[in-house]
Amino acid sequence: MQLLIDAWTFIQQNPVRFGQSLFTHIVLSLSSLATACAIAIPLGVLLADRQRGALAVINVANIGRTLPSLAVLALVMPILGTGFVPSWFALTLLALPPILINTYTAVREVDADAIDAARGMGMNDAQIIGKIKLPLALPVLFAGVRTAAVQVVSGAVLASYIGGGGLGDFITAGIAMMAVPQLLVGAIPATLLSIGTDFLFGRIQRWLTPRGIQPQAAA
Amino acid sequence: MNWFLRNYDQVLVGLGEHIFISASALVLSFIVAFVVGLWAARNETVYQTSLAVSGFLYTIPTLAFLALLIPIVGLGKTNAIIVMVCFSLLILVRNVALGIRGAPAEVVDAARGMGMSASQVLWKVELPLALPVIVAGLRIAAVTVISVSVVAAYVGAGGLGTLIFNGITNDHAPKIWAGALTACALAVAVDLSLAALERRLGRRTRG
Fold first, then answer.
1. How large is the ipTM?
2. b/e per residue, B74-99, with b = 16+ CB within 10 A?
3. Chain A residue with minimum CA distance to B151
Protein backbone atom coordinates (compact mmCIF):
# COMPACT_ATOMS: atom_id res chain seq x y z
CA MET A 1 0.00 0.00 0.00
CA GLN A 2 2.82 2.34 0.92
CA LEU A 3 4.31 1.55 -2.49
CA LEU A 4 1.14 2.71 -4.20
CA ILE A 5 1.18 5.96 -2.24
CA ASP A 6 4.84 6.45 -3.19
CA ALA A 7 3.99 5.81 -6.82
CA TRP A 8 1.22 8.39 -6.69
CA THR A 9 3.58 10.90 -5.05
CA PHE A 10 6.07 10.26 -7.86
CA ILE A 11 3.42 11.15 -10.46
CA GLN A 12 2.50 14.31 -8.54
CA GLN A 13 6.14 15.34 -8.35
CA ASN A 14 6.78 14.65 -12.04
CA PRO A 15 3.51 15.55 -13.77
CA VAL A 16 5.18 16.71 -16.99
CA ARG A 17 7.38 13.63 -17.36
CA PHE A 18 4.45 11.32 -16.66
CA GLY A 19 2.16 13.22 -19.04
CA GLN A 20 4.74 13.14 -21.80
CA SER A 21 5.34 9.40 -21.45
CA LEU A 22 1.63 8.67 -21.43
CA PHE A 23 1.14 10.91 -24.45
CA THR A 24 4.01 9.28 -26.38
CA HIS A 25 2.63 5.86 -25.49
CA ILE A 26 -0.81 6.71 -26.88
CA VAL A 27 0.51 8.48 -30.00
CA LEU A 28 2.91 5.62 -30.74
CA SER A 29 0.15 3.02 -30.34
CA LEU A 30 -2.46 4.94 -32.34
CA SER A 31 -0.15 5.80 -35.23
CA SER A 32 1.07 2.20 -35.53
CA LEU A 33 -2.47 0.87 -35.40
CA ALA A 34 -3.70 3.40 -37.96
CA THR A 35 -0.84 2.60 -40.36
CA ALA A 36 -1.44 -1.12 -39.99
CA CYS A 37 -5.17 -0.65 -40.68
CA ALA A 38 -4.46 1.50 -43.73
CA ILE A 39 -2.28 -1.27 -45.19
CA ALA A 40 -3.94 -4.47 -43.98
CA ILE A 41 -7.64 -3.72 -44.57
CA PRO A 42 -7.38 -2.84 -48.30
CA LEU A 43 -4.88 -5.65 -48.79
CA GLY A 44 -7.18 -8.15 -47.06
CA VAL A 45 -10.16 -7.06 -49.20
CA LEU A 46 -8.10 -7.41 -52.38
CA LEU A 47 -6.66 -10.78 -51.41
CA ALA A 48 -10.08 -12.20 -50.56
CA ASP A 49 -10.96 -12.28 -54.26
CA ARG A 50 -7.75 -13.98 -55.31
CA GLN A 51 -6.85 -17.61 -54.99
CA ARG A 52 -3.16 -18.26 -55.52
CA GLY A 53 -1.23 -15.26 -54.24
CA ALA A 54 -3.53 -14.91 -51.25
CA LEU A 55 -2.56 -18.14 -49.57
CA ALA A 56 1.13 -17.25 -49.66
CA VAL A 57 0.52 -13.85 -48.07
CA ILE A 58 -1.75 -15.33 -45.40
CA ASN A 59 0.88 -17.97 -44.61
CA VAL A 60 3.49 -15.27 -44.17
CA ALA A 61 1.07 -13.36 -41.93
CA ASN A 62 0.53 -16.49 -39.86
CA ILE A 63 4.26 -16.84 -39.36
CA GLY A 64 4.47 -13.13 -38.54
CA ARG A 65 1.92 -13.70 -35.84
CA THR A 66 4.14 -16.16 -33.98
CA LEU A 67 7.20 -13.88 -33.81
CA PRO A 68 7.96 -12.57 -30.31
CA SER A 69 7.21 -8.81 -30.05
CA LEU A 70 10.50 -7.99 -28.41
CA ALA A 71 12.45 -9.88 -31.06
CA VAL A 72 10.77 -7.82 -33.79
CA LEU A 73 11.52 -4.55 -31.96
CA ALA A 74 15.11 -5.63 -31.39
CA LEU A 75 15.61 -6.64 -35.03
CA VAL A 76 14.49 -3.23 -36.24
CA MET A 77 17.09 -1.45 -34.12
CA PRO A 78 20.29 -2.43 -35.99
CA ILE A 79 18.59 -1.38 -39.24
CA LEU A 80 16.67 1.78 -38.37
CA GLY A 81 18.38 2.80 -35.14
CA THR A 82 16.58 3.94 -31.99
CA GLY A 83 13.75 6.35 -31.32
CA PHE A 84 10.12 6.90 -32.19
CA VAL A 85 10.18 6.01 -35.90
CA PRO A 86 11.83 2.56 -35.52
CA SER A 87 9.36 1.78 -32.71
CA TRP A 88 6.45 2.89 -34.86
CA PHE A 89 7.74 0.72 -37.71
CA ALA A 90 8.14 -2.38 -35.53
CA LEU A 91 4.73 -1.97 -33.87
CA THR A 92 3.09 -1.53 -37.27
CA LEU A 93 4.68 -4.80 -38.39
CA LEU A 94 3.28 -6.50 -35.28
CA ALA A 95 -0.22 -5.12 -35.85
CA LEU A 96 -0.44 -6.16 -39.51
CA PRO A 97 -1.03 -9.95 -39.26
CA PRO A 98 -4.15 -10.01 -37.03
CA ILE A 99 -5.88 -7.27 -39.06
CA LEU A 100 -4.92 -8.83 -42.40
CA ILE A 101 -5.98 -12.35 -41.45
CA ASN A 102 -9.30 -11.23 -39.98
CA THR A 103 -10.13 -8.95 -42.92
CA TYR A 104 -9.32 -11.71 -45.40
CA THR A 105 -11.36 -14.32 -43.52
CA ALA A 106 -14.28 -11.97 -42.92
CA VAL A 107 -14.57 -10.81 -46.52
CA ARG A 108 -14.27 -14.36 -47.83
CA GLU A 109 -17.07 -15.51 -45.61
CA VAL A 110 -19.53 -12.88 -46.79
CA ASP A 111 -22.61 -14.71 -48.08
CA ALA A 112 -22.19 -15.27 -51.83
CA ASP A 113 -25.95 -14.87 -52.32
CA ALA A 114 -25.84 -11.36 -50.88
CA ILE A 115 -23.12 -10.44 -53.38
CA ASP A 116 -25.08 -12.00 -56.24
CA ALA A 117 -28.19 -10.09 -55.24
CA ALA A 118 -26.23 -6.84 -55.11
CA ARG A 119 -24.81 -7.50 -58.55
CA GLY A 120 -28.29 -8.27 -59.82
CA MET A 121 -29.43 -4.89 -58.50
CA GLY A 122 -26.79 -3.30 -60.71
CA MET A 123 -24.09 -2.48 -58.16
CA ASN A 124 -20.53 -2.19 -59.44
CA ASP A 125 -17.48 -3.74 -57.74
CA ALA A 126 -16.71 -0.64 -55.66
CA GLN A 127 -20.30 -0.46 -54.45
CA ILE A 128 -20.29 -4.15 -53.59
CA ILE A 129 -17.15 -3.69 -51.49
CA GLY A 130 -18.43 -0.54 -49.79
CA LYS A 131 -22.08 -1.47 -49.27
CA ILE A 132 -22.09 -5.26 -48.95
CA LYS A 133 -18.71 -6.79 -48.23
CA LEU A 134 -17.30 -4.30 -45.71
CA PRO A 135 -20.46 -3.87 -43.59
CA LEU A 136 -20.99 -7.63 -43.39
CA ALA A 137 -17.31 -8.30 -42.72
CA LEU A 138 -16.98 -5.53 -40.17
CA PRO A 139 -17.53 -7.46 -36.90
CA VAL A 140 -14.84 -10.08 -37.65
CA LEU A 141 -12.58 -7.50 -39.26
CA PHE A 142 -12.84 -5.31 -36.20
CA ALA A 143 -12.10 -8.23 -33.90
CA GLY A 144 -8.73 -8.33 -35.64
CA VAL A 145 -8.25 -4.60 -35.08
CA ARG A 146 -9.06 -5.13 -31.40
CA THR A 147 -6.46 -7.90 -31.05
CA ALA A 148 -3.91 -5.73 -32.83
CA ALA A 149 -4.74 -2.72 -30.64
CA VAL A 150 -4.11 -4.61 -27.41
CA GLN A 151 -0.93 -6.10 -28.86
CA VAL A 152 0.33 -2.66 -29.90
CA VAL A 153 -0.41 -1.05 -26.53
CA SER A 154 1.43 -3.94 -24.83
CA GLY A 155 4.24 -3.83 -27.37
CA ALA A 156 4.63 -0.08 -26.91
CA VAL A 157 5.76 -0.83 -23.33
CA LEU A 158 8.71 -2.72 -24.85
CA ALA A 159 9.46 0.14 -27.28
CA SER A 160 11.23 1.80 -24.38
CA TYR A 161 14.21 -0.52 -25.00
CA ILE A 162 14.82 0.94 -28.43
CA GLY A 163 14.25 4.50 -27.29
CA GLY A 164 10.64 4.76 -28.37
CA GLY A 165 9.61 6.39 -25.10
CA GLY A 166 6.25 5.69 -23.50
CA LEU A 167 5.31 4.24 -20.13
CA GLY A 168 7.92 1.51 -20.45
CA ASP A 169 10.57 4.14 -19.61
CA PHE A 170 9.42 4.16 -15.99
CA ILE A 171 9.50 0.37 -15.83
CA THR A 172 13.00 0.01 -17.28
CA ALA A 173 14.35 2.83 -15.10
CA GLY A 174 12.55 1.38 -12.08
CA ILE A 175 14.01 -2.09 -12.65
CA ALA A 176 17.49 -0.71 -13.33
CA MET A 177 17.53 1.22 -10.03
CA MET A 178 15.28 -1.27 -8.20
CA ALA A 179 13.00 1.70 -7.44
CA VAL A 180 9.67 -0.07 -6.98
CA PRO A 181 7.42 3.03 -6.83
CA GLN A 182 8.81 4.31 -10.12
CA LEU A 183 8.34 0.90 -11.67
CA LEU A 184 4.69 0.94 -10.62
CA VAL A 185 4.27 4.39 -12.20
CA GLY A 186 4.93 2.66 -15.51
CA ALA A 187 3.33 -0.72 -14.89
CA ILE A 188 -0.05 0.29 -13.44
CA PRO A 189 -1.01 2.91 -16.07
CA ALA A 190 0.24 0.61 -18.85
CA THR A 191 -1.98 -2.19 -17.54
CA LEU A 192 -4.98 0.13 -17.24
CA LEU A 193 -4.37 1.48 -20.73
CA SER A 194 -4.26 -2.01 -22.16
CA ILE A 195 -7.41 -3.18 -20.36
CA GLY A 196 -9.14 0.09 -21.29
CA THR A 197 -8.22 -0.42 -24.94
CA ASP A 198 -9.61 -3.94 -24.94
CA PHE A 199 -12.83 -2.75 -23.30
CA LEU A 200 -13.26 0.27 -25.59
CA PHE A 201 -12.61 -1.72 -28.77
CA GLY A 202 -14.99 -4.41 -27.53
CA ARG A 203 -17.68 -1.76 -27.19
CA ILE A 204 -17.01 -0.35 -30.65
CA GLN A 205 -17.08 -3.87 -32.06
CA ARG A 206 -20.56 -4.46 -30.66
CA TRP A 207 -21.71 -1.06 -31.88
CA LEU A 208 -20.39 -1.74 -35.40
CA THR A 209 -22.17 -5.07 -35.74
CA PRO A 210 -25.27 -4.55 -37.92
CA ARG A 211 -28.42 -5.40 -35.95
CA GLY A 212 -29.40 -8.08 -38.43
CA ILE A 213 -26.35 -10.21 -37.69
CA GLN A 214 -26.02 -9.52 -33.98
CA PRO A 215 -26.00 -12.72 -31.88
CA GLN A 216 -29.31 -13.01 -30.08
CA ALA A 217 -29.30 -12.75 -26.29
CA ALA A 218 -25.52 -13.02 -26.19
CA ALA A 219 -23.85 -11.76 -23.03
CA MET B 1 27.49 -14.16 -38.81
CA ASN B 2 31.13 -14.32 -37.66
CA TRP B 3 30.11 -13.40 -34.16
CA PHE B 4 27.52 -16.14 -34.27
CA LEU B 5 30.08 -18.77 -35.32
CA ARG B 6 32.53 -17.71 -32.62
CA ASN B 7 29.89 -17.55 -29.89
CA TYR B 8 27.50 -20.30 -30.83
CA ASP B 9 27.95 -21.84 -27.36
CA GLN B 10 26.49 -18.68 -25.80
CA VAL B 11 23.52 -18.87 -28.15
CA LEU B 12 23.02 -22.56 -27.37
CA VAL B 13 23.03 -21.90 -23.61
CA GLY B 14 20.47 -19.13 -24.16
CA LEU B 15 18.35 -21.39 -26.33
CA GLY B 16 18.52 -24.20 -23.75
CA GLU B 17 17.49 -21.88 -20.94
CA HIS B 18 14.74 -20.47 -23.10
CA ILE B 19 13.30 -23.89 -23.86
CA PHE B 20 13.62 -24.95 -20.22
CA ILE B 21 11.69 -21.98 -18.75
CA SER B 22 9.08 -22.05 -21.51
CA ALA B 23 8.53 -25.78 -21.13
CA SER B 24 8.27 -25.64 -17.33
CA ALA B 25 5.74 -22.82 -17.54
CA LEU B 26 3.77 -24.72 -20.16
CA VAL B 27 3.67 -27.94 -18.12
CA LEU B 28 2.54 -26.08 -15.01
CA SER B 29 -0.06 -24.14 -16.92
CA PHE B 30 -1.32 -27.28 -18.60
CA ILE B 31 -1.83 -29.08 -15.27
CA VAL B 32 -3.85 -26.16 -13.91
CA ALA B 33 -5.76 -25.68 -17.15
CA PHE B 34 -6.55 -29.39 -17.45
CA VAL B 35 -8.23 -29.49 -14.03
CA VAL B 36 -10.06 -26.18 -14.51
CA GLY B 37 -10.97 -27.11 -18.07
CA LEU B 38 -12.51 -30.44 -17.04
CA TRP B 39 -14.59 -28.62 -14.48
CA ALA B 40 -15.49 -25.83 -16.90
CA ALA B 41 -16.64 -28.36 -19.52
CA ARG B 42 -19.40 -29.49 -17.15
CA ASN B 43 -20.26 -26.21 -15.49
CA GLU B 44 -21.24 -23.09 -17.44
CA THR B 45 -20.61 -20.67 -14.52
CA VAL B 46 -17.07 -22.01 -14.04
CA TYR B 47 -16.52 -21.76 -17.79
CA GLN B 48 -17.61 -18.13 -18.03
CA THR B 49 -15.78 -17.08 -14.85
CA SER B 50 -12.50 -18.76 -15.76
CA LEU B 51 -12.57 -17.23 -19.25
CA ALA B 52 -13.33 -13.77 -17.85
CA VAL B 53 -10.51 -13.95 -15.26
CA SER B 54 -7.90 -15.35 -17.60
CA GLY B 55 -9.02 -13.02 -20.41
CA PHE B 56 -8.36 -10.12 -18.06
CA LEU B 57 -4.89 -11.46 -17.19
CA TYR B 58 -4.16 -11.95 -20.90
CA THR B 59 -4.66 -8.24 -21.63
CA ILE B 60 -1.95 -7.05 -19.21
CA PRO B 61 1.23 -5.97 -21.06
CA THR B 62 3.99 -8.54 -20.53
CA LEU B 63 6.58 -6.15 -19.19
CA ALA B 64 4.05 -4.43 -16.92
CA PHE B 65 2.97 -7.80 -15.52
CA LEU B 66 6.58 -8.81 -14.83
CA ALA B 67 7.16 -5.43 -13.19
CA LEU B 68 4.02 -5.64 -11.03
CA LEU B 69 5.23 -8.94 -9.58
CA ILE B 70 8.65 -7.59 -8.58
CA PRO B 71 7.44 -6.11 -5.25
CA ILE B 72 5.83 -9.49 -4.45
CA VAL B 73 8.22 -12.20 -5.70
CA GLY B 74 11.29 -10.18 -6.72
CA LEU B 75 13.44 -10.84 -9.78
CA GLY B 76 14.17 -14.19 -11.37
CA LYS B 77 12.63 -17.30 -12.85
CA THR B 78 9.66 -17.55 -10.43
CA ASN B 79 8.43 -14.16 -11.52
CA ALA B 80 8.71 -15.09 -15.19
CA ILE B 81 7.01 -18.45 -14.78
CA ILE B 82 4.02 -16.94 -12.94
CA VAL B 83 3.47 -14.47 -15.79
CA MET B 84 3.83 -17.16 -18.45
CA VAL B 85 1.37 -19.46 -16.68
CA CYS B 86 -1.18 -16.63 -16.38
CA PHE B 87 -0.83 -15.77 -20.05
CA SER B 88 -1.26 -19.30 -21.33
CA LEU B 89 -4.15 -20.24 -19.01
CA LEU B 90 -6.84 -18.51 -21.08
CA ILE B 91 -6.02 -20.44 -24.21
CA LEU B 92 -5.56 -23.81 -22.53
CA VAL B 93 -8.67 -23.71 -20.31
CA ARG B 94 -10.81 -22.62 -23.23
CA ASN B 95 -9.53 -25.34 -25.54
CA VAL B 96 -9.70 -28.16 -22.97
CA ALA B 97 -13.30 -27.21 -22.15
CA LEU B 98 -14.33 -26.71 -25.78
CA GLY B 99 -12.66 -29.95 -26.82
CA ILE B 100 -14.50 -32.01 -24.24
CA ARG B 101 -17.79 -30.30 -24.99
CA GLY B 102 -17.23 -30.99 -28.67
CA ALA B 103 -17.47 -34.77 -28.21
CA PRO B 104 -20.72 -35.78 -29.98
CA ALA B 105 -23.50 -36.51 -27.48
CA GLU B 106 -24.47 -39.76 -29.22
CA VAL B 107 -20.92 -41.10 -28.93
CA VAL B 108 -20.87 -40.34 -25.20
CA ASP B 109 -24.33 -41.93 -24.88
CA ALA B 110 -23.17 -45.03 -26.70
CA ALA B 111 -20.13 -45.31 -24.41
CA ARG B 112 -22.38 -45.06 -21.36
CA GLY B 113 -24.72 -47.60 -22.87
CA MET B 114 -21.80 -50.01 -23.21
CA GLY B 115 -21.43 -49.77 -19.45
CA MET B 116 -18.45 -47.42 -19.21
CA SER B 117 -18.07 -45.54 -15.94
CA ALA B 118 -17.84 -41.75 -15.91
CA SER B 119 -14.04 -41.83 -15.73
CA GLN B 120 -13.83 -44.40 -18.53
CA VAL B 121 -16.01 -42.16 -20.69
CA LEU B 122 -13.68 -39.26 -19.96
CA TRP B 123 -10.37 -41.04 -20.59
CA LYS B 124 -11.41 -43.39 -23.39
CA VAL B 125 -13.95 -41.31 -25.31
CA GLU B 126 -14.08 -37.62 -24.51
CA LEU B 127 -10.37 -36.86 -24.13
CA PRO B 128 -9.20 -38.73 -27.23
CA LEU B 129 -11.85 -36.88 -29.24
CA ALA B 130 -10.83 -33.57 -27.66
CA LEU B 131 -7.12 -34.10 -28.38
CA PRO B 132 -6.86 -32.09 -31.64
CA VAL B 133 -8.52 -29.06 -30.01
CA ILE B 134 -6.30 -29.40 -26.93
CA VAL B 135 -3.18 -29.57 -29.11
CA ALA B 136 -4.40 -26.50 -31.01
CA GLY B 137 -4.54 -24.65 -27.68
CA LEU B 138 -1.14 -25.96 -26.69
CA ARG B 139 0.26 -24.57 -29.92
CA ILE B 140 -0.95 -21.01 -29.29
CA ALA B 141 0.07 -21.26 -25.63
CA ALA B 142 3.59 -22.45 -26.54
CA VAL B 143 4.12 -19.56 -28.94
CA THR B 144 2.83 -17.09 -26.33
CA VAL B 145 5.12 -18.50 -23.65
CA ILE B 146 8.18 -18.36 -25.92
CA SER B 147 7.37 -14.73 -26.71
CA VAL B 148 6.95 -13.83 -23.03
CA SER B 149 10.21 -15.48 -22.01
CA VAL B 150 12.14 -13.20 -24.38
CA VAL B 151 10.96 -10.24 -22.29
CA ALA B 152 11.44 -12.17 -19.05
CA ALA B 153 15.21 -11.98 -19.51
CA TYR B 154 14.86 -8.41 -18.29
CA VAL B 155 13.81 -9.58 -14.84
CA GLY B 156 16.71 -12.03 -14.74
CA ALA B 157 15.04 -15.19 -15.99
CA GLY B 158 17.77 -15.90 -18.56
CA GLY B 159 17.23 -17.24 -22.07
CA LEU B 160 17.63 -15.69 -25.50
CA GLY B 161 16.32 -12.33 -24.31
CA THR B 162 19.56 -11.93 -22.34
CA LEU B 163 21.51 -11.80 -25.61
CA ILE B 164 19.11 -9.20 -27.01
CA PHE B 165 19.33 -6.98 -23.94
CA ASN B 166 23.12 -7.24 -23.78
CA GLY B 167 23.25 -6.39 -27.45
CA ILE B 168 21.03 -3.35 -26.99
CA THR B 169 22.98 -2.10 -23.96
CA ASN B 170 26.38 -2.50 -25.65
CA ASP B 171 25.06 -1.46 -29.06
CA HIS B 172 26.36 -4.73 -30.42
CA ALA B 173 24.19 -5.65 -33.41
CA PRO B 174 25.38 -9.27 -33.98
CA LYS B 175 24.26 -10.18 -30.45
CA ILE B 176 20.83 -8.69 -31.12
CA TRP B 177 20.57 -10.58 -34.40
CA ALA B 178 21.62 -13.85 -32.80
CA GLY B 179 19.19 -13.54 -29.88
CA ALA B 180 16.23 -12.21 -31.83
CA LEU B 181 16.52 -14.47 -34.86
CA THR B 182 17.01 -17.60 -32.73
CA ALA B 183 13.93 -16.65 -30.69
CA CYS B 184 11.91 -16.13 -33.89
CA ALA B 185 13.14 -19.44 -35.30
CA LEU B 186 12.21 -21.25 -32.08
CA ALA B 187 8.69 -19.77 -32.12
CA VAL B 188 8.13 -20.63 -35.78
CA ALA B 189 9.54 -24.16 -35.39
CA VAL B 190 7.35 -24.93 -32.38
CA ASP B 191 4.31 -23.47 -34.12
CA LEU B 192 4.83 -25.46 -37.31
CA SER B 193 5.54 -28.78 -35.58
CA LEU B 194 2.51 -28.50 -33.30
CA ALA B 195 0.41 -27.53 -36.33
CA ALA B 196 1.56 -30.72 -38.07
CA LEU B 197 0.70 -32.77 -34.97
CA GLU B 198 -2.70 -31.08 -34.82
CA ARG B 199 -3.45 -32.01 -38.43
CA ARG B 200 -2.41 -35.62 -37.89
CA LEU B 201 -4.55 -35.98 -34.79
CA GLY B 202 -7.46 -34.31 -36.58
CA ARG B 203 -7.29 -36.83 -39.39
CA ARG B 204 -7.14 -39.72 -36.96
CA THR B 205 -10.16 -38.55 -34.95
CA ARG B 206 -12.24 -37.95 -38.03
CA GLY B 207 -11.13 -41.14 -39.77
1. 0.84
2. ebebebbbbbbbbbbbbbbbbbbbbb
3. A70
